[in-house]
């Protein structure tokens, strides 16, 4: 114990400078000696030794060490001088705290060692006490044997540890040999690398000499070669500096681009929000303006033909409203979707009517169309475009049916229509058929060519593609109609086919695609004799429509029947050309999107929806002539395509194809019976007329004979 204490004390005081007095370090040893002799005399204490507690001895030792610490630091040898700065004082105190912390750590380690030594001494003391307290030699012998067994066990452990040490030493020697071999291998590689570097340097020098001293020239003097080499080195250094400058500039520009991109994104988001808000405000403005114009029209109707100051003022307001354009109000205003003269398919946005009242209605309609377009741009049109863009290959499905009913975006419509047409005519389509029909038409003139030529100038007078003299659409339309007249000789040409083919040309733009679209409508979608000379199927559909209107809109039909209004005068053309002359292009093409997929049922749905859309306006009219005048143009007043679509496909349900076929069958039988009866009456009339003519000729002959005799 004394040796352990002495070694630990020397380690703890190893930081003291030389020349320190040794008696101070010996005092703690003398104080710890009674602890060391304590196990040898259990239960007794020496009479001459003092009895300080462990706490008092530790306190004395710490005080003595603190004194030694004070004597070791030059900062405290003669006291802290007053001319020292506060920072030096703080540094000295921190150093003293560090030294005391290290000393405390060493003291803790010493206490742990002493605890272990004390435990070992106490175990020996207990063994000795048990040995001395044994009453017989047998018990003492057993204790001795137990110790011998412990010694033998410890010996075996020592042997095992020795063997492990030898194996580790052997392993270490093997590792050293491997390390030496690797070092030799590395040395060889370094030598090879050095040799290669020397070869490369020599080759580089040779290449440099070849460049600086061509073989056909005399070698330059050493000074010139050195100057050339130095200039090349300077150029290389300048190039390196330039490269570094460019890298720095590139990093700076990249950071600037990143910042500008972030600013641009924020500005784009703000611009998008402002455009949305502006669109909403413009839509509201269009609605207010249309309501204002509608109010002017109602006032004009209420005043009638009266001549007064109010009527003159009203007429002036109407003229100003017709001449005023939103773009002229402020030259700096933002136009999101201005009312241009023509729409995207070339149709006039505001029809050019000669009657002033109709001009006012056209302006109201244009404003309403624009307001609905602006309001539905973000809420409906953009999600619909995203759904169409996400749609892959086209296959018949319920999802495709719903998308077609909602309308096909303009950028996807040609592709979708070609697929729908091919679905209808794939059993009729043959390669080169269209070109063969055109060549047949060039060989000889078709009987319907004259009628086709007359109808070309009547096709869509409100569309710039068919009215412009330099447009190629009239020629394309002529070729499509002539090819169809050769394709289907039973029909040849019927008035109305020109408008069907024109719509197909406006969307598909290719002649052959428009030709097959016309074939699909006439020969696969519509009933067989829809465009025949008698128009039998067309007349049947008019009677079916009357029945459906009586079922779906009984109040409206009763009102029309009260005023003896025949709807077939208005609706016959709807079915013949599939609303081509009736609805505005935005709604018309949505009708065709569903019509090409579902068939004629869509035409019935939209015909019912048109009357439902304007039912209240029709019920306000109580004169047959006024009703006819309103029905003549009321389809052009429909501006909300989503509302019309919702009425057609939701409010008109249930609408079963089986019911439609049954009604067609019933009315066809009735119509054919009426036609047979009409033919019979015709034949009877012709017979009667022939007999009358024969009798008249006989009478005339007898009178001539009488005159001849006279």
Molecular structure report:
- Helix content is 75%, strand content 0%.
- The protein is built from 26 helices and no strands.
- α13 (449-456) runs antiparallel to α15 (473-487), α16 (497-508) crosses α17 (511-525) and α18 crosses α19 (554-562).
- The model is unreliable at 7-56, 69-82 and 325-338 (pLDDT under 50).
Provide key terms for this protein.
710 residues, Helicase, Ruva Protein, domain 3, Cyclin A, domain 1
CATH topology of the domain at 527-582 and 600-690: Cyclin A, domain 1
Helical amount? over 70%
Q: What is the CATH architecture descriptor of the domain at 527-582 and 600-690?
A: Orthogonal Bundle
Instruction: Kindly state the number of beta strands.
Output: 0
- Major β-sheet annotation: none
Q: Beta-strand percentage?
A: under 5%
Q: Which CATH class of the domain at 527-582 and 600-690 applies here?
A: Mainly Alpha
Radius of gyration: 57 Å
Mean pLDDT: 79
- In N-to-C order, the SSE pattern is HHHHHHHHHHHHHHHHHHHHHHHHHH
Shape: elongated
Q: How far is the first residue's CA from the last residue's CA?
A: 189 Å
Helical/strand content category = mainly alpha
Sequence stretches where pLDDT stays below 50 over 5 or more residues = 7-56, 69-82, 325-338
Relevant CATH superfamily of the domain at 527-582 and 600-690: Ypt/Rab-GAP domain of gyp1p, domain 3
- Compute the number of helices: 26
């Amino acid at each position: 114990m004394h040796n352990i204490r002495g070694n630990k004390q020397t380690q703890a005081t190893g930081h003291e400078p030389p020349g320190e007095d040794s008696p101070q370090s010996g005092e703690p040893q003398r104080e710890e000696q009674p602890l060391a002799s304590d196990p040898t005399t259990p239960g007794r204490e020496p009479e001459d030794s003092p009895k300080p507690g462990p706490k008092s001895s530790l306190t004395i030792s710490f005080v003595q060490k603190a004194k030694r610490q004070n004597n070791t630091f030059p900062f405290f040898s003669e006291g802290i001088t007053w001319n020292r700065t506060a920072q030096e004082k703080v540094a000295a105190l921190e150093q003293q705290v560090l030294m005391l912390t290290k000393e405390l750590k060493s003291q803790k380690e010493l206490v742990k060692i002493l605890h272990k030594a004390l435990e070992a001494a106490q175990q020996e003391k207990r063994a000795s006490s048990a040995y001395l307290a044994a009453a017989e030699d047998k018990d003492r012998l057993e204790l001795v044997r137990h110790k011998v067994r412990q010694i033998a066990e410890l010996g075996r452990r020592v042997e095992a540890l020795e063997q492990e040490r030898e194996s580790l030493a052997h392993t270490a020697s093997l590792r050293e040999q491997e390390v030496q071999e690797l070092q030799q291998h590395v040395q060889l590689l370094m030598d090879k690398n050095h040799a290669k570097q020397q070869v490369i340097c020599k080759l580089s020098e040779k290449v440099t000499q070849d460049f600086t001293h061509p073989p056909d020239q005399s070698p330059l003097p050493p000074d010139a070669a050195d100057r050339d080499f130095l200039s090349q080195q300077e150029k290389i250094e300048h190039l390196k500096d330039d490269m570094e400058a460019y890298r720095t500039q590139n990093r700076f520009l990249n950071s600037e681009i990143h910042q500008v991109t972030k600013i641009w994104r924020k500005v784009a988001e703000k611009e998008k929000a402002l455009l949305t808000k502006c669109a909403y405000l413009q839509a509201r403005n269009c609605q207010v303006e249309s309501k204002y114009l509608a109010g002017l029209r109602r006032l004009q109707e209420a005043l009638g033909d009266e001549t007064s100051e109010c009527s003159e003022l009203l007429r002036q307001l109407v003229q100003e409203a017709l001449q005023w354009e939103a773009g002229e109000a402020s030259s700096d205003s933002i136009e999101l979707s201005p009312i241009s003269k023509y729409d995207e398919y070339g149709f006039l946005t505001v029809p050019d009517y000669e009657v002033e009242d109709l001009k006012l209605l056209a302006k109201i309609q244009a404003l309403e169309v624009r307001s609905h377009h602006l309001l539905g741009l973000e809420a409906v049109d953009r999600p619909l475009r995203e759904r169409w863009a996400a749609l892959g290959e086209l296959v018949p499905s319920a999802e495709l049916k719903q998308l077609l009913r909602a309308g096909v975006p303009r950028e996807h419509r040609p592709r979708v229509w070609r697929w729908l047409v091919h679905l209808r005519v794939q059993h009729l389509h043959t390669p080169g058929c269209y070109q063969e029909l055109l060549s047949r038409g060039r060989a000889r003139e078709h009987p319907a060519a004259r009628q086709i030529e007359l109808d070309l100038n009547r096709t869509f007078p409100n569309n710039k593609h068919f009215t412009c003299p330099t447009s190629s659409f009239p020629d394309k339309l002529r070729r499509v109609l002539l090819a169809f007249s050769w394709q289907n000789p039973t029909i040849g040409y019927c008035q109305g086919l020109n408008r069907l083919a024109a719509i197909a040309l406006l969307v598909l733009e290719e002649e052959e695609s428009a030709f097959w679209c016309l074939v699909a409508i006439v020969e696969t979608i519509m009933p067989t004799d829809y465009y025949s000379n008698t128009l039998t199927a067309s007349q049947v559909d008019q009677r079916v429509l009357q029945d459906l209107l009586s079922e779906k809109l009984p109040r409206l039909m009763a009102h029309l029947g009260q005023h003896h209004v025949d709807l077939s005068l208005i609706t016959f053309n709807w079915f013949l050309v599939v609303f081509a002359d009736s609805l505005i292009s935005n709604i018309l093409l949505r009708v065709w999107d569903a019509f090409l997929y579902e068939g004629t049922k869509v035409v019935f749905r939209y015909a019912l929806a048109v009357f439902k859309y304007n039912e209240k306006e029709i019920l306000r009219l109580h004169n047959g002539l006024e009703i006819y005048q309103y029905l003549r143009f009321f389809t052009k007043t429909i501006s909300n395509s989503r509302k019309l679509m919702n009425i057609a496909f939701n409010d008109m349900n249930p609408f079963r194809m089986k019911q439609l076929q049954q009604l067609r069958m019933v009315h066809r039988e009735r119509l054919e019976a009426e036609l047979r009866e009409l033919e019979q009456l015709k034949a009877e009339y012709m017979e009667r007329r022939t007999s009358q003519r024969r009798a008249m000729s006989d009478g005339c002959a007898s009178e001539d004979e009488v005159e001849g005799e006279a």
